[in-house]
Amino acid sequence: MSEFLTFTVLGIVYGAIYAITAGGLVVTFTTTGIFNFAQGAVGMIAAFTYWQLWQGWHWPLALALVVVLFIEAPLMAIYVESQLMRRLHGASVQRTLMVSLGLLVILVGVATLFWGNPDVIRTVPPFFDNTTTGAIGSVHLFGANGVTISDQQLLTVGVAVVVAVGLRIFFRTFRLGVAMRAVVDDPELVAMSGAKPYRISQMGWALGFILAAVAGVLIAPTQSSGLSIQQLTLLVINGYAAAVVGRLRSLPMTFLGAMLLGLVSEYAVGYLPGHINQNVVSVLPTLIPVLFLFVVLLVIPAARLAAAGRLPAHLPPRVVTMPQSLLGAVVLIVVGTILALTVGGAALQPLTQGLALGIVGLSLVLLTGYAGQISLCQLTFLGVGAFVMGKISGGDSWWGLVLAVVVSGALGALVALPALRLRGLYLALATLAFGEAAYFAFFNNNVVIPQGSFIPVGRLRLPFMHAVGDRADMIEVLVATALCAVLVGVIRRSAFGRRLVALSDSPAAFATVGLSASRTKVYVFALSAAMAGFGGVLYAGQPEAIGSNDVQFFGSLTLLLFVAIWGMRSLTGALLGGMTAAALPVLESHLPGYLSYLTGIVAGTGIALLGKSPDGILGFDWLVAHFRLPFSDQRDDPPELLPSQDVAHAS
Amino acid sequence: MPADAAALEVRAVAVRFGGVTALSGVSLTASAGEVTGLIGPNGAGKTTLFNVITGLQRPDHGDIFMNGQDVARKGPHRRARLGLARTFQRLELFGSLTAADNVRVAMESFGGSSRAAATAVLERVGVGDYAGQNVSSLATGSARLVELARALSIDPKVLLLDEPCSGLDEHETLALGELLRSVAAEGRAVILVEHDTELVFRVCSTVYVLDFGEVIASGPPEAIRQNPLVQQAYLGQAQPHEQVEPADEVRSADEAGS
Q: Can you give the pTM of this predicted structure?
């Protein structure tokens, strides 16, 4: 009985923290229409600042709390709203998602800059030091076999209740709350009624950030092994799951989902049969929220196809022609070969892996650039491809390659299947859940890859050639990358390619001309995952190994961002994105410490650009007008150069 | 086709959005070879009805039959494969593609297609010159015609048109009226939602009037024109013998405002 009560109390306490952060997600989403992927990162920053002020600089607790919750969080929110989010109203899910993911990367970069030193253990004590303050200490309930609840736990649950009740009253009763609910639908209409729409969405962001900070501050004392940037950032996935229970709209359902998740997690870990492998037990706390999210995505009602009635305001890139892409391929191979034969040995690994990541980038062009579907687990497919390759007949066989591609492709289809009924954001969340589950349960599992170790992966043996060494390997990868780029161009010009673009442009029209969105999504997910798996074989072939560090969620995310920054619909953009993702860590390791968050700076600059040019750097008008890059997709001629419409009608 | 099976039959469809009744017990029949009109003030439920017919909106009640076959449980793409096509009041073109490729995507879903075949359909509706042009650079009127071409290209048995004339000038509207008649004459059922009542009365054999989600009148154009309920709900204060033109609505609105 006592055991059960203990788990229940712990479940409710964790549920309360999830509820607060998820409540913030829902508030921001309902007032701005943007799902803030950086919600966890905001909480993480708050937790670290709280530690810094209170423990690091010995400020009074109350002052530290006020600064973190009511100065830092709202100021961050106002800055983020004005610099990044304001111009995103009415933008596609894809773009808003990229920007909030970029914010996540920036915040992680900032945290690494200040608190990146792993040698310092940062633990935060509970609010009340019972020995000195004479606070209530703890409450004992249900008699001798009952349970002891600490004042910190009581406080956490109390704060959650206050937040729940407060939000409900605010949104139902207050004029500002009602206006906040209205602004997401039609800011112009709200403006006509005298309110300032951007002020209102600033409020939405500020409220969301404050709630994230509250959750961060409450969760800090529970991190007994010290605050971790990654762990705190990922805690938000638990928040995602709860928010999805509320379908990103309903606060009561979100709070219910959070409590459910808290309880399920505690009971599952607490009541696990004793004979279960310790490796499984250790990953459960991280795995359960992810599985919970996956299950919730399976059971929430299907999204309706709605006619959005929106045409993109900018001209899309013109499709690259076969001669253009062949020329691009030749240029790439020639330049790359010269590099391969001349650069120093140390540069070969990032260059080769950058090319392989370019192939994964090309898989994103298919999936996200053309079809408008978002995958946050592309490096998982890379890892699967490399793993399968490594495990089949010596790790360097053609059979291994074929199987690697087939298995990754099949897995891609499998990931898409449960989320087919869903669109945009939910599908992205499903891929995130899958990537995390694969990481915790598989790649980061001692049984599969021993801690700190690698799975050996060989390089392909080419027929009729006896090319050995890193330079030959780079040239092989170079040719493969060029061929993949040409292949993606061929796909884009085919009927299937037109279909992908159509699905992205108007899902409603797509269905009403007799096309099945579900089938097309499965195909494109499978194709894209297969290509990522192929990239994985080449990626792991360079160092002849694959480890869990190669397939982290954060890597999938930064690669996606870099491709988006260069140009998500451009083959050149994919290659440059892959190269950037491979080059930055190398650059960072050669730079002085204070510049080591370069990834964050680049991502930040990039997403600021994305607000201006949805087609990325390669889509900038002056670039398109002045340069013809290999593989580059040129814009259509401007409309005024075409015969005037009046003339055309009269004829 | 058996004489008793209408190309499209809508039976007692009801849709509620929260507390708002969008459609209540709407029934409608459209026959092959005819253009059927659907008119009503803004917010009467015309587009919602189209969404229900095409499967984009699930009704709370009611049945949809195409050529006698119950399609209410089928998804939008399955209904399209049975020969249902539509255009949208707010454009739903594939904005990254050329006009010809917009049509080709539709044709390819039913089998092969070629640029020439796509261009032929565009020419039929009068926008052949724009075949190679990106649709996001087209004027609204032309873009609507590309949508019409895309819908026609799947050789539909039932064609739903949601305000195809907005953005067109007088000549183009006249030409479109002729086109709709010839499209219907090929044995298709055409349902036309349009604010240009002159066009509706000219080309339709039957007209339905929707107001506050209910059918308040239906019948041949002449009877609808004379129907006092319709005049009250939709056509403004015009006298029974007066020609009703959209300009009248604008004028009366101006007068009311002054």
A: 0.86
